[in-house]
């Protein structure tokens, strides 16, 4: 059914097992100098609870500011709970968080190294979430590290986006956090410090889709992306740091071009933080370029935003990359919004990014150097781990 219809929304709710919230206030926050101050302001204003789940939490200037803000709130009696991935946040040691824990905050690691979890060690929480008082949420792809804040050494600040969420969807973000908090702590969050009554007058349609690994890899995130791509009639815009679609998604993108959809894909250029993954990704451009899709590589810095817009109507922002690890191995979370203003705001950001990007032609791709092709072969061996 048409993706602007109630029938399509019902179908999407059913397939991704998520509730469509009908009210909300969403603010798009591009880049660390904008989203970190907004996050810190929310933490400092917390009255009852601060819940943070992160794949990346690295010691540095921005981590210090987070720690100071959360510690001050914990001393004031606010319940502060952190879920940090044991691998992605390995550098933020127990001693770093000692002031927060001594103030009453709680810090737990997701899927640490234990004998009974060896068979699922590859499962990480890749979610980047913050929920304050159960009323304000932040979702996107950025963790807590200086590469998003000021840049590091010779590496310019990463390009990324968070969305500040108010309204009914915040309860679903909180429920996503509560899922892994129960796993790491044994505690179930239930009182109104976490789930207050929410009254938001602004109409919108937003779904929170969380996903966890499945045997076949067809997580709810995977279903979300597939159905939205299949629904596109005019435009598909994808920004992703790691672009390794499986055969089914690649066919879906090529079919979209054949039915007249304008397909644009924005990925990192030479400043990618994973050069083998980038090389493997470039090796797969062929079918897209031959079909007529446009592929761009961002030049100024690493681009880490994870955004998809469909028909200037639907937008998806969250933690999911366009690869098998996100679709089948990690815990992820995405916000899917049917709101023309939000979609067009994100499209506007992409236009700005494209002006700082290099379009890859089919001729460029066919004549890529032999050294790059050799790296592609290495990358395909490890594709499922990227």
Features:
14 helices; 37% helix; alpha+beta; 386 residues; single chain; 15 strands; 15-stranded mixed β-sheet
Give a nutshell description of this structure.
By secondary structure, the protein is α+β, with helices and mostly antiparallel strands.
Please describe what this structure looks like.
It is a single chain. This protein is α+β, with helices and mostly antiparallel strands and 386 residues long. It is 37% helix and 23% strand. The chain has a 15-stranded mixed sheet, with helices on both faces. Strand 9, helix 8 and strand 10 form a beta-alpha-beta unit. Helix 9 packs across helix 14 (370-381). The mean pLDDT is 93.
| Biggest sheet character | 15 strands, mixed
Terminal CA distance reads 34 Å
Structure class? alpha+beta
Q: Compute the average pLDDT.
A: 93
- What is the ordering of alpha helices and beta strands? HEHEHEHEEEHEHEHEHEHHEEEHEHEHH
Q: How many alpha or pi helices?
A: 14
Strand content: 15-25%
Number of strands: 15
Physical arrangement of strands within the biggest beta sheet: 4-3-2-5-6-7-1-8-14-13-12-9-10-11-15
C-alpha-based Rg, rounded: 20 Å
Low-confidence stretches: none
Shape: globular
The percent of residues in helical segments reads 25-40%
Topology:
Elements: H1 6-16, E1 21-30, H2 32-44, E2 49-54, H3 61-75, E3 79-85, H4 98-102, E4 106-110, E5 129-132, E6 136-140, H5 146-149, E7 161-167, H6 169-185, E8 203-211, H7 220-231, E9 235-239, H8 247-258, E10 262-268, H9 275-283, H10 286-291, E11 294-298, E12 307-310, E13 314-318, H11 324-329, E14 332-338, H12 340-354, E15 357-360, H13 362-366, H14 370-381
Parallel strand pairs: 2-3, 3-4, 9-10, 10-11
Antiparallel strand pairs: 1-7, 1-8, 2-5, 5-6, 6-7, 8-14, 9-12, 11-15, 12-13, 13-14
Helix pairs in contact: 2-3, 7-8, 9-14
């Amino acid at each position: 059914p048409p993706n602007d219809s109630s029938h399509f929304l019902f179908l999407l709710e059913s397939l991704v097992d998520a509730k469509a919230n009908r009210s909300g206030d969403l603010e798009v926050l591009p880049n660390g100098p904008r989203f970190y101050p907004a996050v810190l302001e929310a933490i400092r204003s917390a009255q009852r609870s601060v819940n943070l789940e992160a794949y990346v939490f690295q010691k540095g200037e921005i981590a210090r500011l987070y720690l100071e803000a959360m510690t001050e709130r914990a001393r004031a009696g606010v319940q502060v709970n952190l879920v940090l991935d044991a691998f992605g946040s390995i550098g933020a040691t127990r001693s770093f968080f000692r002031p927060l824990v001594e103030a009453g905050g709680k810090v737990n690691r997701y899927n640490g190294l234990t004998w009974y979890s060896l068979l699922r060690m590859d499962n990480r929480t890749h979610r980047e979430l913050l929920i304050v008082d159960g009323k304000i949420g932040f979702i996107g792809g950025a963790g807590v590290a200086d590469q998003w804040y000021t840049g590091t050494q010779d590496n310019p600040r990463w390009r990324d986006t968070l969305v500040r969420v108010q309204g009914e969807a915040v309860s679903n973000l909180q429920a996503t956090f509560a899922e892994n908090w129960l796993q790491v702590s044994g505690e179930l969050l239930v009182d109104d410090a976490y789930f207050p009554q929410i009254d938001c007058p602004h109409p919108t349609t937003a779904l929170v889709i969380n996903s966890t690994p499945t045997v076949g890899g067809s997580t709810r995130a995977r279903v979300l992306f597939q159905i939205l791509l299949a629904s596109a009639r005019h435009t598909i815009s994808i920004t992703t740091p790691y672009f390794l679609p499986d055969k089914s998604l690649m066919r879906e993108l090529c079919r979209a071009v054949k039915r007249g959809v304008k397909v644009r894909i924005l990925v990192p250029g030479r400043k990618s933080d994973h050069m083998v993954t980038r090389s493997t990704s470039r090796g797969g451009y062929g079918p897209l370029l031959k079909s007529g899709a446009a592929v761009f590589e961002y030049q100024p810095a690493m681009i880490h935003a994870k955004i998809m817009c469909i028909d200037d109507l639907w937008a998806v922002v969250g933690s999911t990359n366009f690869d098998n690890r996100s679709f089948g191995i990690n815990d992820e979370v995405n916000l899917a919004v049917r709101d023309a203003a939000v979609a067009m705001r994100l499209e506007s950001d992409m236009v700005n990014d494209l002006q700082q990007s290099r379009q890859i032609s089919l001729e460029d791709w066919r004549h890529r150097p032999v050294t790059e092709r050799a790296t592609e072969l290495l990358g395909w061996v490890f594709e499922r781990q990227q």
